[in-house]
């Protein structure tokens, strides 16, 4: 078979590296893209004889597919319209073949004239149809339909009527399958969800919106939801502050009721879970089926876990944890308590031999009471780090060829990326050597850790405040600003007027009153603040 490629294509394909993977190596994404590009280039230059052979093979496969599809029964799972990927179980299989929808007069007209229009638009039979040409065919058919002669229109309409009658006959004979009903979560009359779970509390804006919508619906029942929402939002912005405070108080009461109801509901759920016998808390049938269908997550020898495998492991463990038996749950709690005790003992004894920064202030240090015995061991090197140590110098020479200049940040990033690429394609022999070296490093680290005795530090005491408002060490407090002085006076008055007022509502009202305060009053608070600042400087 003579399949000659263009000279530039031969040159391009000859310059590409071999895409055949080496033994025990994997295809990368770049390799797959290169394969796809190469196949697309060959398809564009395929010979006519081989093209005919491919078409014959495609037709044969299409026949096999149609045979298998006809034998494929509806007793298997079928995707439903409820959610992406949701499935429904078929209870009763269908009887007969599902009829296809009847052809309309316009579709019958298009079937009659499509071939002629396609020959007019696409004159070269050896080339393929383009998208623009297919669009031109559709447009041309629509133009012909608008100017169709009455006789042909009557013929198409008569054919459409006959098609509709045939479709109706097939539809009367066909019995569709019966699916398992899809149950949605229902709400009870009390407004609670199934399981008596309390609803979320409404905000102040939602309470106002409900009242406002009732009035707008009475005034104009034909008002759309969008227009109503815009009007409600506008009225809320123009609502007086006192009215907003009332809605905020009602919302806070609902939130408090919701907190109490949620605590009661959670306690009820825990009580029901504890009362359920351990033998009855088995996996649901669909969960068992899902977990049984999953492939084994144990890695093969010399293979690595992928991110998808780790996600599958996490999902499976989460499903098992939700359905854990009460006896096993108690065992896990006991083991967790034991590990917590061991951790506290190790934490109390651990510490470096030098001064260490504590959490008390930036740069604060703790005093060592008893010095460390021996040198603190360094953390063991992993197989990947050992591989990087072996190949870093060579990669650095490849990336940075000039030894007289300094390394740039981009070059260091390129070195790290290159080492990661080499690690993904590492040969099995070198991988085994790195793993062996990592095991030896870990053993050496464990020996040094057993000998090392960490130092004992002086306990850290947090700074406390005295009754006089000064910190320990008699350090003076920061002076108050003019706004803080005004806010203290204003809050006292608001608390006397309404003790149940929330902190957020009080702050909003204080801020608004400060903006509306006369300039002379602000000057008085500013003078008082300046006096406090002067006292603070002296102190």
UniProtKB/TrEMBL annotation:
The keyword DNA damage does not apply. Residues 99-175, 198-266, 377-453, 476-539 bind DNA. Residues 99-175, 198-266, 377-453, 476-539 form the HMG box domain. InterPro entries: HMG_box_dom, HMG_box_dom_sf, HMGB. Residues 1-29, 181-201, 273-307, 459-480 are annotated as: Disordered. One of its GO terms (molecular function) is DNA binding. One of its GO terms (cellular component) is nucleus. SMART domains: HMG. Keywords: DNA-binding, Nucleus. This is HMG box domain-containing protein.
């Amino acid at each position: 078979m003579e399949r000659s490629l263009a000279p530039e294509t031969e040159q391009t394909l000859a310059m590409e590296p071999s895409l055949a993977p080496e033994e025990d190596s994997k295809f990368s994404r770049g390799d797959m893209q290169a394969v796809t590009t190469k196949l697309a280039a060959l398809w564009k230059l395929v010979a006519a004889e081989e093209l005919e052979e491919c078409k014959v093979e495609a037709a044969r496969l299409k026949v096999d597919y149609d045979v298998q599809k006809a034998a494929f029964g509806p007793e298997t799972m079928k995707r439903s319209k409820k959610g992406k990927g949701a499935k429904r179980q078929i209870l009763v299989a269908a009887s007969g073949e599902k009829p296809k929808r009847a052809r309309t007069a316009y579709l019958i007209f298009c079937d009659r004239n499509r071939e002629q229009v396609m020959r007019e638009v696409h004159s070269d039979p050896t080339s393929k149809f383009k998208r623009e040409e297919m669009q031109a065919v559709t447009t041309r058919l629509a133009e012909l339909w608008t100017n169709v002669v009455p006789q042909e229109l009557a013929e198409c309409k008569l054919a459409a009527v006959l098609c509709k009658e045939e479709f109706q006959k097939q539809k009367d004979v066909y019995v569709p399958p019966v699916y398992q009903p899809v149950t949605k979560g229902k709400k009870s009359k009390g407004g609670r969800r199934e399981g008596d779970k309390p609803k979320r509390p409404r905000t102040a804006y939602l309470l106002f919106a409900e009242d406002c919508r009732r009035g707008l619906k009475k005034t104009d029942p034909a008002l759309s939801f969008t227009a109503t929402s815009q009007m409600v939002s506008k009225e809320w912005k123009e609502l007086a502050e006192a009215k907003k405070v009332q809605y905020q108080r009602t919302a806070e009461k609902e939130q408090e009721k919701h907190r109490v109801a949620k605590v009661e509901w959670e306690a009820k759920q825990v009580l029901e879970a504890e009362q359920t016998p351990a033998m009855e808390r088995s996996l649901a049938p669909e969960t068992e089926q899902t977990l049984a269908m999953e492939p084994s997550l144990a890695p093969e020898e010399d293979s690595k876990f992928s991110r998808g495998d780790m996600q599958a492991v996490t999902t499976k463990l989460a499903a098992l944890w939700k359905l854990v038996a009460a006896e096993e749950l108690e065992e896990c709690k006991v083991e967790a308590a034991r590990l917590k005790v061991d951790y506290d003992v190790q934490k109390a004894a651990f510490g470096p031999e030098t001064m260490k920064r504590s959490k008390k202030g930036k740069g604060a240090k703790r005093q060592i009471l008893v010095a460390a015995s021996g040198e603190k061991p360094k953390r063991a090197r992993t197989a990947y780090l050992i591989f990087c140590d072996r190949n870093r110098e060579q990669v650095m020479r490849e990336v940075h060829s000039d030894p007289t200049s300094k390394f740039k940040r981009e070059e260091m990033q390129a070195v790290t990326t290159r080492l990661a690429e080499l690690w993904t394609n590492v040969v099995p022999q070198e991988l085994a050597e790195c793993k062996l070296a990592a095991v030896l490093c870990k053993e050496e680290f464990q020996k040094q850790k057993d000998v090392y005795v960490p130092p004992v530090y002086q306990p850290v005491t947090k700074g406390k405040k005295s009754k006089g408002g000064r910190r320990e060490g008699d350090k003076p407090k920061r002076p108050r600003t003019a706004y803080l002085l005004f806010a203290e006076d204003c809050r006292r008055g608001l608390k006397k007027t309404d003790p149940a007022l929330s902190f957020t509502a009080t702050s909003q009202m204080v801020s608004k009153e400060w903006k509306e305060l006369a300039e002379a009053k602000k000057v008085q608070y500013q003078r008082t603040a300046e006096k406090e600042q002067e006292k603070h400087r002296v102190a």
